[in-house]
């Protein structure tokens, strides 16, 4: 505050004393105000300094925490190199290294680690094997399945010997001649079954044996029919081959013509009487079918 000068004439000594006393009190009050202002300014400066120090400490703590997180994946070799630079050598003698150098080394180690992580992320093209006999390099981020092909193998080619050329050409005549003894075994088994059925007293076992006998007899009959059909076709082929040698154009039978040949052969083997009986049954069957197709006779009102 600016001091005001009072230009007033002093009349007596008492007034002079009062004036000096008032001036002294005024100076003391000014000094007290000045001291208070200085004290408040110093306190504000101290508070600002403390806040700046706290901010610096917080930033440093955050940087150290981040550095610790980054250093958690740093290898032991890089940590040993940094430890040596910080002041511990082979003879355990302390060196004087600045904090800036330490921070620089740590940042360099973290950057190298990040580069290595980038290199480790290989593409599918890079993960291909140099040799097919080596195991496949798999990613550790995916869950491993229990059933997996570590080394891919060639798929097994299953082959049917009936249609494979390696098994050779099937010759029906040769097969029948080679395994003709099996037919004799089957015939002997049929005879044994017939004798056993005659001697068997238990009705259930006898019934089971009869069913087995009918199956075996029907299978033998179908085999004989098949052989007979093959024989007819073979004879027809021989006749056609002789006609072709004479100059006739080759002719191949249709399925319907093959069926006609089989029926003719069957009727010839049965005889005239059996054929008449079969034809009579066929007529009755056809007539019953025709009767079913006819409409019913309507009843009149008188009936």
Automatic annotation (TrEMBL):
Keyword rRNA processing: yes
Pfam families assigned to the protein according to its UniProt record, in alphabetical order: RRP36
Biased composition (Acidic residues): 12-58
Extent of Basic and acidic residues compositional bias: 122-140, 218-245
Main location: nucleus
Domain of life: Eukaryota
GO aspect biological process, one term: maturation of SSU-rRNA from tricistronic rRNA transcript (SSU-rRNA, 5.8S rRNA, LSU-rRNA)
Basic residues bias: start-end ranges: 280-303
Span list, region Disordered: 1-64, 113-156, 213-249, 274-303
Keywords: Coiled coil, Nucleus, Ribonucleoprotein, Ribosome biogenesis, rRNA processing
Protein localization: Nucleus, Nucleolus
GO-annotated cellular components: 90S preribosome; nucleolus
Function: Component of the 90S pre-ribosome involved in the maturation of rRNAs. Required for early cleavages of the pre-RNAs in the 40S ribosomal subunit maturation pathway.
Quaternary context: Associates with 90S and pre-40S pre-ribosomal particles.
Family: Belongs to the RRP36 family.
UniProt protein name: rRNA biogenesis protein RRP36
Provenance organism: Rhizopus azygosporus (Rhizopus microsporus var. azygosporus)
């Amino acid at each position: 505050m600016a001091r005001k000068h009072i230009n007033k004439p002093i009349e007596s000594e008492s007034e002079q004393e009062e004036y000096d006393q008032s001036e002294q009190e005024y100076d003391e009050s000014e000094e007290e105000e000045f001291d208070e202002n200085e004290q408040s300014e110093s306190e504000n400066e101290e508070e600002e300094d403390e806040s700046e120090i706290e901010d610096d400490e917080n930033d440093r703590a955050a940087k150290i925490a981040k550095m610790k997180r980054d250093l958690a994946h740093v290898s032991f070799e890089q940590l040993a190199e940094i430890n040596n630079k910080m002041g511990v050598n082979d003879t355990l003698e302390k060196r004087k290294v600045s904090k800036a150098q330490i921070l620089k080394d740590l940042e360099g180690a973290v950057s190298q680690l990040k580069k290595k992580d980038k290199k480790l992320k290989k593409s599918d093209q890079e993960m291909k094997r140099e040799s097919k006999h080596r195991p496949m390099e798999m990613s550790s981020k995916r869950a491993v399945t229990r059933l997996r092909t570590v080394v891919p193998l060639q798929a097994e080619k299953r082959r049917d010997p009936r249609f494979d050329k390696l098994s050779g050409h099937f010759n029906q005549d040769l097969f029948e001649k080679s395994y003709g003894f099996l037919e004799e075994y089957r015939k002997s088994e049929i005879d044994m079954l017939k004798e056993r059925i005659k001697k068997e007293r238990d009705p259930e076992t006898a019934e089971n044996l009869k069913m087995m006998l009918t199956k075996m007899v029907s299978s033998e009959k179908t085999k004989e029919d098949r052989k007979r059909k093959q024989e007819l076709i073979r004879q027809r082929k021989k006749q056609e081959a002789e006609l072709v040698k004479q100059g006739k154009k080759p002719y191949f039978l249709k399925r319907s013509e093959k069926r006609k040949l089989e029926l003719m052969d069957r009727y010839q083997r049965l005889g005239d009487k059996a054929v008449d009986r079969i034809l009579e049954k066929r007529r009755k069957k056809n007539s019953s079918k025709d009767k079913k197709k006819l409409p019913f006779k309507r009843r009149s009102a008188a009936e």
